[in-house]
């Protein structure tokens, strides 16, 4: 039995296995592009239970398409459990629970590892992944805090803690820890991501552009999905300063242009940006049709309701009405069969929201409002981050504006303005809504502020 770089015991006599596992953990935590290095571990020692379980995790990150391969390696891992240590047995159990979509059990196993083996940051990373996809921000933060003292020498823990803090709205601390993480390791892409969330949430648009583009050279060494996702975050700043030409350029050259077009997560990067562009009135040409052509494998996948809501919107906007209908029916079937702890999210939140997304894509504003309004407070349970899920409120707001429901529109806009008061489109829509409601003075002030902000951001565009 040997130890990895974190001092954790691995049941193997092969140094090549340990090297491969150490490299895999590093790639996992920095969101690198060479995570397939873990395959070398099972080549070096096919009987290593931990190596087989980590290969299974590698394939599960690919979504439904990786399940067959993940199951094969899990079965191999289980066949060698008698010689495995306690941490390895828990890890195999956690990955098996993930494969079975029993995320509550997977989290419980990772929590047990965190208590007994706090140096296992790969396990903590998976726990945070599951917590995020369950809408449990407190869980994300709690597990990072639990192991922080044992990992102060590891730059990755600071980024993991930063993202948990951000999702719990503790933005000042999140930024502090995120910047510490970047100072310790410049190519700490997960920390880039955490700070990007903070700056976007606070509307610090110029700072966001400067920071992200100053680090973007390191993204070339990250996973393809995360490369696109970090550029997606960068594009949100440009979207808010209304440099739409730059956003389209990023889409065409950095996101969809560089994407592995059959990868679901990369499709989501593209969908989430196209939708936001259209909500700002930008003509996206034939991009929906091009993207939708790749979505057939997503119809019955159902990894997360959060993902399905965006896939089904893209199908409806891309002219794939038959596929959208099939996917909605498949979601309904899946919702009735899923494990009880997750059933409510799918039945009472995911499926109604999917109907609302289809309705909005088709311009049926009243149906979109009727379906989305009741579920908006519970959409956190479908997965994703705050910044990603904000899309659903934007769609709901667009439907309200289009249906001329001005009192409800005003409530949403004032809430958004209180959170991010320097976004031109918010003040422009406020001015229009105040005018419609006869609040002339408020409309004038909002209009003036929208103009001042637009002029300010035009100067930013000229320096880009």
Quick description:
The protein is mainly alpha-helical and 464 residues long.
Report on this model:
The structure is a single chain. The chain has helices at residues 15-30, 39-44, 49-60, 67-79, 86-99, 103-116, 121-133, 137-148, 155-167, 171-184, 189-201, 205-215, 224-240, 244-255, 264-279, 287-292, 305-317, 321-337, 340-361, 365-372, 386-402, 406-419, 424-436, 440-463, and strands spanning 2-3, 9-10. With 464 residues, the protein is mainly α. A two-stranded antiparallel ribbon has the order 1-2. Helix 12 runs antiparallel to helix 13. The longest helix is centred in the last third of the chain and has 24 residues, at 440-463. The mean pLDDT is 96.
Query: Helix and strand succession?
Result: EEHHHHHHHHHHHHHHHHHHHHHHHH
Q: Which assembly state applies to the chains in this document?
A: single chain
Number of helices: 24
Mean pLDDT: 96
Describe the global form.
globular
Helix content: over 70%
Q: How large is the radius of gyration?
A: 23 Å
Largest sheet: 2 strands, antiparallel
- Secondary structure class reads mainly alpha
Spans of at least 5 consecutive residues whose pLDDT stays below 50 are none
Strand order of the largest sheet: 1-2
Percent of residues in β-strands = under 5%
How would the blueprint of this fold be written?
Blueprint (H helix, E strand, L loop, with lengths): L1 E2 L5 E2 L4 H16 L8 H6 L4 H12 L6 H13 L6 H14 L3 H14 L4 H13 L3 H12 L6 H13 L3 H14 L4 H13 L3 H11 L8 H17 L3 H12 L8 H16 L7 H6 L12 H13 L3 H17 L2 H22 L3 H8 L13 H17 L3 H14 L4 H13 L3 H24 L1
Antiparallel strand pairs: 1-2
């Amino acid at each position: 039995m040997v130890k990895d770089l974190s001092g954790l015991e691995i049941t193997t006599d092969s140094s090549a296995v340990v090297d491969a596992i150490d490299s895999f953990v590093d790639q996992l935590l920095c969101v690198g592009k060479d995570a397939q290095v873990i395959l070398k571990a099972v080549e070096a020692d096919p009987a290593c239970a931990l190596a087989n379980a980590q290969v299974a995790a590698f394939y599960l990150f690919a979504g439904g398409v990786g399940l067959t391969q993940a199951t094969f390696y899990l079965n191999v891992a289980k066949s060698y459990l008698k010689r495995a240590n306690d941490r390895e047995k828990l890890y195999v159990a956690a990955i098996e629970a993930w494969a079975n979509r029993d995320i509550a059990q997977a989290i419980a196993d990772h929590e047990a590892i965190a208590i007994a083996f706090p140096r296992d940051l790969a396990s903590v990373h998976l726990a945070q992944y599951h917590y995020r996809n369950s809408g449990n921000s407190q869980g994300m933060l709690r597990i990072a805090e639990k192991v922080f003292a044992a990992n102060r020498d590891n730059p990755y823990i600071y980024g993991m803690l930063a993202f948990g803090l951000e999702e719990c709205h503790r933005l000042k601390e999140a930024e502090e820890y995120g910047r510490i993480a970047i100072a310790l390791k410049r190519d700490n892409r997960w920390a880039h991501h955490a700070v990007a969330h903070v700056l976007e949430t606070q509307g610090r648009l110029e700072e966001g552009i400067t920071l992200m583009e100053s680090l973007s050279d390191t993204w070339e060494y990250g996973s393809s999905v995360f490369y696109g996702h970090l550029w997606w975050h960068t594009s949100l700043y440009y979207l808010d300063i209304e440099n739409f030409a730059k956003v389209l350029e990023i889409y065409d050259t950095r996101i969809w242009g560089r994407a592995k077009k059959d990868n679901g997560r990369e499709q989501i990067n593209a969908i989430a940006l196209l939708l936001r562009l259209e909500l700002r009135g930008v003509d996206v040409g034939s991009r929906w049709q091009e993207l939708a052509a790749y979505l057939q494998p997503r119809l019955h996948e159902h990894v997360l309701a959060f993902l399905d809501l965006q896939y089904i919107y893209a199908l409806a906007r891309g002219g794939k009405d038959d596929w959208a209908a099939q996917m909605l029916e498949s979601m309904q079937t899946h919702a009735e069969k899923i494990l009880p702890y997750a059933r409510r999210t799918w039945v009472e939140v995911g499926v109604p929201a999917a109907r609302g997304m289809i309705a909005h894509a088709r311009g049926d504003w009243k149906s979109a409002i009727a379906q989305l309004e009741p579920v908006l407070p519970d959409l956190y349970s479908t997965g994703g981050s705050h910044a990603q899920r904000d899309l659903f409120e934007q769609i709901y707001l667009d439907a309200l504006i289009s249906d001329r429901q001005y009192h409800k529109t005003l409530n949403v806009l004032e809430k958004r303005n209180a959170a991010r008061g320097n976004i031109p489109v918010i003040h422009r829509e406020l001015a229009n809504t105040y005018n419609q409601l006869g609040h002339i003075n408020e409309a004038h002030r909002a209009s003036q502020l929208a103009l001042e902000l637009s002029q300010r951001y035009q100067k930013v565009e000229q320096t880009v």
